[in-house]
Structures are given as structure tokens and as C-alpha cells.
């Protein structure tokens, strides 16, 4: 089962409990002794059986005062590869000396955002806890990793860094920072770590690293402070140890080309500085591989190729310096026997060869203001050379750290470093005891004393003092306070460092031995100090005469004073410094500052510098909330699975773990000032939320009672609340987590409401403003329009009044308007057909123009009409035209005939007798119509046919041609003005053939007469008579037809012998 789910499961359970309103009331459920509370049981049941080997927290040990039980618990767990165990919040870590599968990404996820006790102990839990404290309480944190050399400090610090790099939120920028933070490790380890007897990868410098986080919790930058590099290792290594890794990496891994440029051979045995320990190869180290890693890391951090080249020039030149050999002259002055080295050195360091040579064999003395070059003997020259190597390497290392810091610095201007939260990681050299211990071990062990002091100050001492100050009943725990040893080393005037400095500065021939004597004189009586001379017989056997012993909190160490003064002075002859200041190597020019040459002040000694830097470190650490990782080394042989009880007991003792445990058991896991506590948790109790008005202590008391804390679980001090078990607090934290969500929702909704309301108000205001403006604009426009309209009307009225006057300013608008509107009206209502005679009435001024237009329009329509007329229609119209000219307004039934089309003939071929047709032959008949003929005498009516031929009109009865009237003999035609169909064809009497005028009646009188008039060309010979028609009967005899109007047509012979025709009136006149 995935452990990380347990935390979530717990939270869910608690959430539902909180919902039901009885959270913390049922305290059995949440807070109880181990094994008896529900959640704890549930939680523990989720841990595998393996996790429960021994106890995960020493606080839970039955016999917590027993060292045996303590060691036994460590052993049980170590056997199961459970290397981590807590003492409260302190993590005890055993070095497994083998790779355990507990650092995967899944493991990291399991520890992320989960409370300390919910999962098995792990370095990730410490890292996560520090991270969350930083985020929630906005307090800088530091993780202090201590333990002796090889106990796993550096590994632990790397695990912490990896944890942050993988689990913290990231953006693109942050990713590069993460990479750089991670990659700074292999680089610094290459230049600052070495194989020692204790550890194949021993850090030979102290390192404090700040990781900076932005407000979102993403790592955005870093800063490293380095402490005292063990420079002596550059020129000398004890048997079985090595120089710094980088030398071997370069020689083993460097490409042929590179090595040729650097003048190096692929064999470490060739270099004096690498052969002292007689240990060029180490099975656990792959120099060639590490070289690749370092090269890659350098470029990720941002080193340019040129910078890497210059850096390697320096590393190579150190090796060449080591191979510089001296010969001695009779006078004792040393000379250099290895010219090639000088050649390489001059090139690699970018200095003049002769200057370098002289500086390596002479010493510049200033006597009475004059500079003198005094030759060195062989031994002096060799130590000058080694001093130069150390100086070059040491300063380059510092340059490297600065360079890395540049690349880790967060460069965004918007980011205020004051807003950054910081987690510090301290991985500093552990307590160290060798066969022969020198100045370096003295410094390293002093540093560990200081850290132990800090641990005591921050945990044991301060904790107990606090109980006292807060008036909490408390049973004091005895512990060893190592302040006395710190004072022995660092006290002003009386401390070992002061005495060492004094010997270094004092005129006369001070030496390491005089320093030892001075120590005996000054601190001889100190309980933690001993020398051969001061010791009793038994101790003398294990102490050299040149040694002094310090009884450290972690054990006794004998220090050999040889080299103390030199190392403390850290002297580099002036002329060597001058030579380096002239270097063309860009790194060296930054390392050797010319100002140093003119500065008359004596530089601080190494020990004092170290002391001061430690004091600063303590300040940094004190300002942060610490988390502790206490590393234990299971054996000296770097072997997996070997549990060396003696060695471990020793470490447990000097690390003060037992005292730590006792204080922890007796004390309270957590304390906070009332205001902080109340501020954080007040939302969990209705009485304290949102504000508590009374005394803080009462508020806190109300709050914890509401939460259901049992009396033995907490105490109220003067200014703080003390909570005994972490789980009580964690349960409260979980409740807060749940509460926060609902608070956040509330806040969000009120904020959303508020912001929406503000937005709405703003919008409303804007709308009103816009509306007002718009209305204003509209009103202005309307007013303007009205004004214009009034003006127009006024102008119009005036124009109307003056309309009959000649054009003048008063009426011109009106007249134009009338004209315009008439034309527009005309344009809209032009007649569409020739028959449409409508036309708008023009204004007086346009009468003439209107008439013209009307004519034009008509012409145009006529023209268009005519253009579209076909020949038949034309013919028809021509006939109609003739009819119109003859009959219009003259004969009553004319109008009825107008709409009736004239036809070509009223009789077809079959209507006419074939005989007659034959008689007529080819002559073309133009028109034929049935008619009624009235006899001239008796007026008898007879049916006849009237045929119009080309030259004559023929009257036919059946097949008989009755009468043929030549058109030339047709004198005229008479009709009445009434609606009858009577007509008389008058013929010339001279023509004998003719029988007199012919009286005919025809239905289609208008058509027939029109045809006759056209065929005979007698348009002007048709008489329309009123009343009566006279006609020739024969030889001077006359007949008369009288026409009267009546209701219907009546044709009869009247008594007076006239033919009387009564015709109806169709059209009233
Ligand atoms: N957690 C661990 N898992 C596996 N090996 C470890 C672990 N911690 C330390 N080691 C081994 O122990 C060696 C020494 O550890 P290191 O951290 O360098 O010690 P220190 O910095 O305390 O001197 C490492 O090189 C590694 O081989
Ligand atoms: Mg280390």
C-alpha cells in the first residue's frame, strides 16, 4: 500500500469528522498514547512490518535512559537497512555504505506535503518539514548536518538538494537554477574533496549553502559560503590518502589534446604532489567518469570554454610546480634544476619565466627602505614553492565558489531578496582524528565544537531555560556543555588561537615548539588540555613530545604542533605574490590583487580568519529555525552491514543523542508564543474566530479546550503554549488545513462578490455617464433640427407670400422648392402609355416648361410606340385613322366601332359563289361583306354581298353579279349621323350601265365605309347627314331616306314614300 495515501486518507477522515462537528471532542480518536488512538493505529497499520522494526522514534523507547536500549534499537533497524530514526524532530542517520532503493522519485512523492509522523523516518521528511515550515510560517530554515568524517553528511545534503530540485514547483527559469544548484556539487567536490583514510570522498572544506525560494515556493537562487579549505593537501598527503580529486580526474580523463597543451602526462606517478600518499587509484572512484561529469557540470553552471581552459591551466601549473626541483650551491643558495617545468609554468600561468625563477629561489627583503634579493637555501625554496602552490590552489578554489555564486544568484530585478525565504544547508567537515593531527584537524574539530555548542544552545540549553522562564514545572536534564572547550580554543588573549597568533606575530625566533611551551604556560591547568610534559606516566606513553592534547566533547585528540605557525601565517613571499599579480591568466588576476602588495596591514592569520568566519556562521544559523540530521558512521572500514558497537556508542555519546532524547521525553515537542498560536489556529474555534478580544492566554486556553486537548498534552506558560506530542499539533494542523479550504472559499466568494459589485457600480456609473452624454448629444441635434425646421418653414411661408413676385431672396427658396417638387412629382408620375393623358399641374412658373416636357414625353412615348408597331397593326391603325377622320364626332355609332378591330374581309372563299369567283378570275378582292340592299322603289330589303375589288365595288347576289360600280363613277357616299347601318353609294348618272344610287345597309357600316373610302380613294366624299339623305333613283328621280332617333332600329317605307329609319341613340351628345 502506498504510504502517501495514508495521509490523504487521514485528512479525509478528519474532514468528515470536522463536518460532523465532533472533531477533537473525541480525543481518543486523535490524540492518545501510541497504539491506543484510532488514527495512529490506522496509520501504523499502513506501515509495513519492516518499518516497525524497533521504534521509529527513540522518544517511544520504553527504557529511554538506557544507552544499551538505544544502541540495540539502532542495530535492529540497521540490520533491516532502516538507516533513519527520529529523536523527536532530530533525524539520526546511519551510513549504510551501500545503495539503498529509498531515494527514488516515488519516495520523494511519498514524503511531499505529508506530516512528519505519518510516514517512516527519512531525510526527505526533514527536508519537506523544513520546506513547509518555511512556507507556512515564513521563517528561514536551516538544516544542520553533523557527524564525523565519513558518516554521510555530504550525501545527506545532496539528498536534500535533490528533493527540493525534484519536488518544488518549477518554471523555465527555475529549472536552470535547479540544474545549477545540483551541478555545483560535482564541481565543488572535484576541487574540494579528496580521499582520506576515513572517507573516499571526504569534503576538505566546509560548505554552507543557502537555497532561496520565491513566494510560490520555487527555488530561484542560491548562495554558497565556503570554509577553510585544507590547502596543505595540495603539497602533501598522508599515506593512503590522495590529493584533491580534480588532479586525478584531469590526468585520467583529460583528452590527449588538452593534456598536450597543459604539458601533462597521463600518469599520476609522474607528479610529486600526487605520489606522497602512494594511492593514485581508489576502487570506489572512477576518475575518468567523474571528469566527464565535472566538465558537463562546469558548462551547465555557465563556465565558458576559455574559463575552463584557464582553470585547467592553473591546475596543471600546480602539478608542474610540484615537479620543480632544486639543487644546492656551495654557498647554500638554491637553484632550479628543472627548466622544462619553468617553461610550462611561464606559459600556463602567463608570467615571465625569469621573474618566476628568481621568485622561486629568492626572497625580497626590505631593509631601511631598500629592496634586497636574498637567495633561499634548498629547503626554504622548496617551502616557498609549496606555499605558492597552496596559495594558487586555495585562491582559485575561492574564485570557483564566487563564480558558482554568480551563476546561482537570482538576477530578476522584480525579485526582492528580502521577500525570499531561505533554507540553509550546512555540510561541514566532521570531527576528525588521525594518527597524526595537525593545524587542519585542530580547526576542523574546533568547528565541530562550535556546532555542538550551537546544538546545545538551540536545543538542550535554550529548551530548559525556556521552561524555566515560562514557569513550566520541569525536571532538569543533565548534559555536558562544551562551552568550556570552545572557550579554551577561542577566548581572547587566553585561548589557544590567541596564543598561536601571538607566537606568529612576535619578534624573535618563535617556533612551533615555543608555541607549545607558551600553551603549557597559559592553559596548562585547563581540564581539557594536556601535553606530554603535563601528562601522567600512562598518558605520556601515547603522546609525542611535540603534541598537545585536547579533550574534545567527542573525544581526545593529540595535535602535533609541527607546522602550526607556518600554516597559521599562511605566508607567501612578496616576490612570489608580485609575480602572480603580473599573471596574464584571467582567473589569477582576480585571485591576486595588486592592492594586496601595497597594503601594509598584516593580514589576519588563518586561525583568526577561521574563527571569525565560524562566528558569522553561528549568527546565520541562529537567525534561522534549525532542523538536525545527526549522521553516524557504523564502522571505520567503509563496509556495508558492519555494526561496530564501540564506534557507534562513542558517536551516540559525543553527539549528545542520549541527552537529546531525555530532554525530548521530558519536554514538549512544540511551543509557540500565544499570539502566533492564536493567530494561526483561531479559525478552528467559534469563540476565537475571527478575533479574540480578551487576554491572549485565555484565548489560547479557550481554543485548545475547544479542540479537546487533554490536560497532560499541553501546558500554558507565561507567554507560550507548550504542546507535548507532535501528533497533537499535527492533528491541529490537519484540522486547519481542512478549515482553510472552507475559509478560502468564503473569502473567495466575498471577494468575488465585492469585486463584482465594484465592477458593476463602475459599469453603471459609466453607463449613466454615457447615457447622459448621448442624451445631451441627441437633444442638441434635435434642437438644431427644430431650429432648422422652423427656419425652413419660415422661409417657406415667406416664399409663399412672395411667390408671385419676380425671383428675389425671399422667394427663391420657395420657388426652387416648388419647381423641384414639381419635377420630382413628374419624375414619379410620368404617363406610362400614349393613351395616358394624365399630367401633373405645373406651378405657374413652369407652365411652359411643363408643356414642353409633356410634349417631349408624348413624342417619346409615341416614338417608342411606333417603333414597336408591326405592319399589320400599322395597317389596322391607318384604317382606323381614316375612319376617325371620316366619322369621329359625326356619326353616333362611331365610338362603338373604335375598339373593334377592322378585319380583312367579312366573307371567306367558301361564302362566295364559285361561279362568281371564276367570273372574277384573277382580280384580287380587297374586302367582302354581306349587306342588305333596299330596292330603289319599293325599298324591299334583299341580301346581297358587297365585294371591293381593285378598281370597283361589286354587288353580288349568289353567283350573279348584280351591279359593278367603278370607283371612278362613285360620286360620293352618304350616311346618317345616327347609329344605323344605312349608307348610300352615289354613282354618276351618265353611266348607263348604272341603275342609279345604291341603298345598302350593313352591320359593320364604319368598317365597310372606311374600306370603300380607302379602296376608292373617296375619303373626302363621305357625307354624313342629319335628318335625311336624298338619292337618285333613276333619270332624275329622287328617293329620300328620313332618319329619326328612337329606341330601336326600324326600317320601313313611310306613307310619304320615303324610307323611314328609326335608329337608337347609342351615345348622348
Ligand atoms: N545514504 C547513503 N546511502 C549510501 N551510501 C552512503 C550514504 N551516505 C553515505 N554513504 C557512503 O558513505 C560515503 C561517505 O559519505 P559522505 O557523505 O561523504 O561523508 P561525510 O560528508 O560525512 O564525510 C559516501 O561516499 C557513500 O559511499
Ligand atoms: Mg563530506
From TrEMBL:
Similarity comment: Belongs to the TRAFAC class myosin-kinesin ATPase superfamily. Myosin family.
This protein's record includes keyword Secreted: no
Molecular function via GO: actin filament binding; ATP binding; microfilament motor activity
SMART domains assigned: IQ, MYSc
Residue intervals of the TH1 domain: 891-1065
InterPro entries for this protein: IQ_motif_EF-hand-BS, Kinesin_motor_dom_sf, Myosin_head_motor_dom-like, Myosin_TH1, MYSc_Myo1, P-loop_NTPase
Superkingdom of origin organism: Eukaryota
Organism of this sequence: Cyprinus carpio
Pfam families linked to this entry: IQ (PF00612), Myosin_head (PF00063), Myosin_TH1 (PF06017)
Binding locations of ATP: 147-154
Name this protein carries in UniProt: Unconventional myosin-Ic
Protein encoded by which gene: LOC109088485
PANTHER family: MYOSIN, UNCONVENTIONAL MYOSIN-IC
